[in-house]
From TrEMBL:
<protein>
    <submittedName>
        <fullName>Methyltransferase</fullName>
    </submittedName>
</protein>
<keyword id="KW-0808">Transferase</keyword>
<feature type="domain" description="Methyltransferase">
    <location>
        <begin position="60"/>
        <end position="158"/>
    </location>
</feature>
<dbReference type="GO" id="GO:0032259">
    <property type="term" value="P:methylation"/>
</dbReference>
<dbReference type="InterPro" id="IPR041698">
    <property type="entry name" value="Methyltransf_25"/>
</dbReference>
<keyword id="KW-0489">Methyltransferase</keyword>
<dbReference type="GO" id="GO:0008168">
    <property type="term" value="F:methyltransferase activity"/>
</dbReference>
<dbReference type="Pfam" id="PF13649">
    <property type="entry name" value="Methyltransf_25"/>
</dbReference>
<dbReference type="InterPro" id="IPR029063">
    <property type="entry name" value="SAM-dependent_MTases_sf"/>
</dbReference>
Length: 246
């Protein structure tokens, strides 16, 4: 599950039995050594797809964790990038990793804000918002409120972007892995408090696009060809590009 320097099985178990916030505070120092960090090839593919949509002045990494999305936004934004997360531990790691790198020579200035994504403290402040790998922490009923908060944080003409993977084929190893993980999490949350919301099968693209439209976005899809194709030739991953028109 991780490199030899990553979290031990005991540390992962303690995290899984904590709240989401406390769990990520505990995991933060070793998070980038786990498979949960967004892989570099995904970051590179998102950057290449996002660059032609810019340039942007300001960017927001929603549920930024240790700042993988911040690294993408720094390549496409000219003035400032902000990472927002509710885990103080994850923000501290991200801030430390970029310590001394802010300033004109290193790209846009970077700020870190601790806040709940369901109550973002911004209003028409950003040209682009990005989120990577965080949507499993929100129940489907919370998704409309999340998208509404991002919408309110963007300036007119702003874009909300995030990658989505094609669902694994029924019966594949990934299919059973995701199904088993979600089942185990549902049992855990039925028997243990505080809950730890993290599911892989609660973000179907059709429902997501409907919720984006309900929040006021106009959404489209861009293929991420660097991440490969399915047997039928369709892309394994796409970038959702949702625009705020006014």
């Amino acid at each position: 599950m991780s490199t030899p320097q990553g979290p031990t099985l005991r540390e992962l178990a303690v995290q899984a039995l904590s709240s989401i916030e406390r769990g990520y505070d505990l995991l933060a120092p070793k998070f980038d050594l786990t498979p949960y960090r967004t892989p570099d090839r995904v970051l590179d593919a998102v950057t290449r797809a996002l660059r032609p949509l810019g340039p942007f002045d300001s960017g927001l990494d929603v549920c930024c964790g240790t700042g993988a999305g911040v690294s993408v936004l720094r390549q496409v934004c000219g003035e400032r990038v902000t990472g927002v997360d509710f885990s103080a531990g994850m923000l501290a790691v991200g801030r430390s990793a970029l310590a001394g790198q802010d300033g004109p020579a290193a790209g846009p200035a970077v700020g870190w804000v601790r806040a709940d994504a369901l109550a973002l403290p911004f209003a028409r402040a950003f040209d682009v918002a990005l989120s990577l790998g965080a949507f499993g922490h929100f129940l489907p009923r919370e998704r409309p409120a999340l998208f509404a908060q991002v919408y309110a944080s963007l300036r007119p003409g702003g874009r909300f972007v995030f990658p989505v993977g094609a669902p694994p084929p029924v019966g594949s190893k990934a299919y059973w892995s995701f199904l088993g993980f979600d089942g185990a999490m549902r049992v855990r949350n039925a028997l243990w408090r505080p809950t730890f919301v993290m599911y892989y099968r609660t973000f179907p693209l059709r429902d997501v696009l409907d919720d984006l439209a309900g929040a006021g976005f106009t959404a489209g899809l861009l293929p991420l060809p660097e991440l490969g194709s399915r047997p039928d030739g369709s892309p394994r991953a796409r970038l959702v590009v949702a625009g705020r028109e006014s």
